[in-house]
Automatic annotation (TrEMBL):
GO terms for cellular component: cytoplasm; membrane. This is Glycosyltransferase family 92 protein. One of its GO terms (molecular function) is glycosyltransferase activity. Its EC number is 2.4.1.-. Its main location: membrane. It is found in: Membrane. Keywords: Glycosyltransferase, Membrane, Transferase, Transmembrane, Transmembrane helix. The chain crosses the membrane at residues 7-25. The keyword Glycosyltransferase applies. It comes from Sinocyclocheilus anshuiensis. It is a single-pass membrane protein.
Length: 435
């Protein structure tokens, strides 16, 4: 009996040693990994103040941090929105400081979001738990426990320090990414003016790049105050995929880091906006039974007081099908690049056994983690808004290109706003120097 016990202990000991060896070998692989920055930032190619880069490499690692927030719902921990290299996991530490002199270092809990679509880099939260975090003003994520507090490093400012009960905005639209030479000016101007008529006060775009005419329009809306541009130079750090399917669009991270920016946008507006709309640049979340978003949400929320995530079905209006009369084919817009959504009133029918993807209107204070079409972690639950109450007008290339006009539905909701919409679009294009 005694001898068997000794043998078992010996075996356990050997297994443990082998295990430790493996862990040790593994730790060497990440220490020797090459740095992740592809193109070094130089002042000539990239004239944005350093504080506005939005993406900061974690020293001696392949990971990046984006921004830091107090999460009052989780006992006041610091949540750092991050981009984690999933194949190079390692302990990370959190240095948080209340004044220049007083800093503390704690361990972190790295939470990689479950939706990463198999790309090697994933949207993540690095959670710092410690004492007196509410007093902290800045935070640093490091790989090194010991010297980090003394190093001259770039700290992130900590936001959302105080819970607010009233908000600067009622409705904010988060456009998660703008990239390439996207120059769809007319559709963007129409969408922005449509949002205004629907009751949106604030639009945020995470911008990697865009075309020259759209640039002018963005400048106009920024000056006017409706639009906030967050620089999103993800292509300076990683090779972003232009799609969600890694097999078709190879790269380091899903769709220009869309999952990171969507989450960033929610935390950025937690105490700034009553509701946040998470949709793409060519999509309009459109009420069909209410005049605008405030009256829609008043009804939805009073019927479902606890719900924090409202799912809105996407519907495709092919840009290849034009309405017959041509009454919105205006000469004034002939030289404006982009799609005229008022000409595209044909909507594709639902497909059998194919689920219409959704986008969201959320109460940001009830969301912890989000994906593109649904929330990953929230309190209060989700509600699928009926199609006849609210749906997305999405003018784009068809998904069912073989269908003829007769097989599509006529949907003229945008025309209900025609008078004000046309007037406001014209005014905007003139003020932007495009008309
Ligand atoms: C960029 O500008 C900063 C401050 O203006 C300067 O300290 C730095 O050396 C410059 N870097 C390069 C690569 O030119
Ligand atoms: C938000 O909605 C409330 C209630 O309808 C209204 O009193 C307030 O003026 C709105 N705020 C903005 C910024 O429009």
């Amino acid at each position: 009996m005694e001898k068997d016990k000794v043998n078992v202990l010996l075996l356990l000991f050997i297994v443990t040693i082998i295990g430790l060896l493996f862990v040790h070998m593994d730790s060497h692989t990440y220490i020797q990994a090459p740095p992740a920055i592809k193109a070094p930032l130089s002042n000539n190619t990239f004239k944005i103040p350093k504080a506005l880069y939005s993406i900061t490499p974690i020293k001696d690692s392949e990971h990046f941090v984006v921004s830091a927030f107090i999460d009052h719902r989780l006992d006041g921990v610091i949540r750092v929105i991050s981009i984690i290299s999933r194949n190079h996991l390692q302990p990370l530490y959190c240095v948080y400081c209340s004044t220049e002199q007083v800093c503390k270092t704690v361990h972190t809990d790295v939470q990689i979001h479950s939706d990463h679509f198999s790309f090697p880099y994933g949207a993540s939260d690095v959670i710092c738990k410690g004492k007196h975090m509410q007093d902290a003003t800045r935070v640093l994520i490091t790989t090194d426990k010991i010297d980090s507090a003394n190093l001259k490093m770039e700290y992130l400012p900590i936001k959302n320090k105080v819970v607010q009960e009233t908000f600067k905005f009622n409705f904010t639209v988060c456009i998660s990414n703008l990239f390439g030479d996207y120059n769809n000016v007319l559709q963007f101007a129409q969408s922005m003016e449509m949002y205004k008529l629907l009751g949106v006060q604030h639009v945020v775009i995470y911008k990697t790049s865009c075309g020259p005419d759209l640039e002018k329009l963005l400048k106009h809306y920024e000056t006017e105050g409706m639009l906030e541009i967050v620089p999103w130079p993800i292509d300076q750090f990683l090779n972003p995929s232009s799609g969600w399917n890694i097999k078709i669009h190879k790269g380091d991270i899903h769709y220009y880091g869309q999952l990171v920016t969507l989450n960033e946008c929610i935390y950025r507006h937690m105490y700034q906006s009553k509701y946040v709309l998470l949709n793409d640049i060519d999509e309009i979340i459109m009420p069909y039974k209410h005049a605008n978003l405030p009256s829609l949400m008043e009804d939805l929320q009073s019927a479902q007081p606890t719900i924090g995530v409202f799912l809105i079905e996407n519907h495709i209006f092919p840009k290849t099908q034009f309405e017959e009369s041509g009454k919105f084919k205006r000469a004034e817009w002939n030289n404006i690049p982009g799609v005229n959504i008022m000409e595209h009133i044909y909507r594709e029918p639902d497909r059998k056994n194919i689920y219409n993807p959704t986008k969201m209107i959320v109460n940001p204070r009830k969301v912890q983690q989000t994906s593109v079409h649904s929330s990953l972690k929230n309190t209060g639950g989700s509600f699928l808004v009926p199609f006849n109450v609210c749906r997305i007008v999405h003018v784009r290339v068809p998904l069912q290109g073989h269908l003829t006009k007769e097989q599509l539905f006529v949907d003229k909701r945008v025309w209900d706003f025609e008078q004000e919409l046309i007037q406001n679009v014209d005014q905007t294009l003139k003020r932007s120097g495009l008309l």
